[in-house]
Specification:
alpha/beta
């Protein structure tokens, strides 16, 4: 049994995080001893529809010829609201403010019989979950001091993964770009801005640039808040600047991060094109567009601290598109261990590195999903990282602790970035193999569904890559 974690929760530490693996979780629950019940999970699109996890006014369609997009839309009384060129998928939307109850069924049936259509499916839509995190103590200096970075001593995760020993070979390379497909990254954060790519992108509204990919700083009336801190926290774990005497140090502090924002945020002025859309949802079509954009704009690694419990052909196509373009993809395993470890279908894609979470005692956490899609594990409990410098005045410090496989995934992604820095031409399959073979075995001897091949070891991974 893992020990209970009792963290102090700071005021205003309420954040909305990704459904399934979005990954901060509330501390204090015991480790599940019953194991994963994979057979009870229904990942079908039908199950998603029954659960209300699809958009009611839009569908995703793969065309045999993308040039037919407007003609197909017009033929079915729809509008093209999104194009994902690399995988020939479009999002088609009805102009009706209140579609009929059977609109989705009728539309999918008609599109399915259209000879120009390769497939048509509902557009998965998942809401964020509320959770908590801890603030750094008020007596801890965030800047200055004799050491490189004043909060480095609080980052047990770097020690567990033997990161400083790996740094004797490499701290990363600016040419290695890690895409952070998430809720946005604070482009003005002192510990991040030097390592952020100008190719940042808001996939939800199709806008480029660091400002577009920063999290919204506006709350919705009623006191509910966007997941502003999630992407910023993930980015800091991967590549916070080292040696600037500010805050923390990332796993790969000399690499570049490309923020890809997929969450609309709770804005007082939402995008008028999506006025009728739930502004608190993560949408499959947007995630797919983010994956394709990152792939087409130079990312060598993609980190996705998010997940979907239901299958999407469009998402699967986007992931395979990235892998075929030599982009390594890492996905968080998910945090529903106590709910039977539902499959994260993103992490379950062939070639993807699924990442589980370990705690400060190097044991699997009480929340980390178990399953055959878990490739490796990494520290994901009480991980200290960056937060937006301004969060409506609620967060007093730009650093916080968070728990979740969302935190484990970027720890592993940072190690993958170090590996690619040593050997840039490694394929996704080779990177996955290196991380698995170099991991420190935990739990039962050999592979198991809790730790995968083990907890990632940066020193051994870099050495193995260098020897190739």
């Amino acid at each position: 049994m893992a020990r209970r974690m009792t963290h102090r929760v700071g005021i205003g530490a309420l954040l909305a995080l990704f459904a399934l693996s979005g990954c901060g979780v509330t501390s204090g629950s015991p480790l599940s001893t019953g194991g994963a019940n994979q057979g009870a999970n229904d990942t079908s699109m039908m199950a998603a529809r029954k659960a209300g996890r699809v958009q009611k006014d839009a569908v995703l369609v793969k065309l045999k010829n993308l040039a037919d997009a407007e003609a197909v839309a017009k033929a079915h009384g729809l509008e093209v609201s999104r194009r994902i060129n690399g995988i020939q998928v479009v999002e088609l939307r009805t102009a009706a403010k209140a579609p009929a109850a059977d609109w989705l069924d009728v539309t999918l049936r008609k599109l399915g019989s259209d000879s120009r259509v390769a497939f048509a499916e509902p557009n998965l839509s998942l809401r964020f979950k509320a959770t908590t995190s801890d603030e750094v103590g008020s007596n801890v200096a965030l800047e200055g001091g004799a050491g490189e970075d004043p909060l480095r001593r609080l980052q047990y995760s770097l020690d567990a993964m033997q990161v400083e020993k790996a740094w004797q070979t490499t701290r990363g390379d600016k040419k290695i770009v890690v895409a952070v497909i998430d809720s946005g990254v604070d482009a003005k954060h002192k510990d991040l801005k030097a390592n952020l790519s100008a190719d940042a992108y808001d996939a939800f509204s199709d806008r480029k640039g660091l400002d577009a990919a920063s999290p919204e700083m506006v709350s919705r009336l009623g006191g509910r808040f966007a997941a502003l801190g999630h992407g910023t926290h993930v980015a800091g774990i991967i590549g916070a600047v080292a040696g600037n005497k500010v805050g923390i140090t990332g796993v790969a502090p000399n690499c570049t991060m490309m923020p890809i924002k997929i969450f609309p945020g709770l804005s007082l002025k939402p995008d008028p094109r999506f006025a009728g859309q739930d502004q608190e949802s993560v949408i499959a079509g947007v995630v797919a567009q983010g994956i394709v954009y990152a792939t087409d704009h130079g990312a060598q690694i993609i980190n996705m601290s998010l997940g979907f419990p239901h299958e999407s052909q469009a998402l699967a196509a986007a992931v395979q598109y990235a892998l075929q373009k030599n982009v390594t993809v890492l996905v968080a395993a998910g945090n529903e261990r106590l709910e039977g470890s539902p499959v994260n279908t993103l992490a379950n894609q062939p070639g993807v590195i699924g990442v589980g979470a370990t705690d400060e005692d190097d044991r699997v956490t009480f929340f980390s999903n178990a399953g055959k899609y878990v490739s490796i594990s990494a520290p994901g409990s009480r991980v200290l990282s960056t937060m937006p410098s301004l969060f409506n005045g609620l967060v007093s410090k730009p650093y916080q602790y968070m728990d979740g496989t969302s935190m484990a995934c970027p720890n592993a992604a940072g190690v993958a970035a170090l590996v690619k820095s040593v050997k840039p031409n490694l394929s996704p399959a080779q990177v996955k193999d290196i991380l698995e073979k170099s991991a420190d075995d935990r739990g039962p001897a050999g592979y198991d569904t809790d730790y995968g091949h083990g907890r990632v070891n940066a020193e051994r991974a870099v050495a193995l890559a260098k020897a190739i």
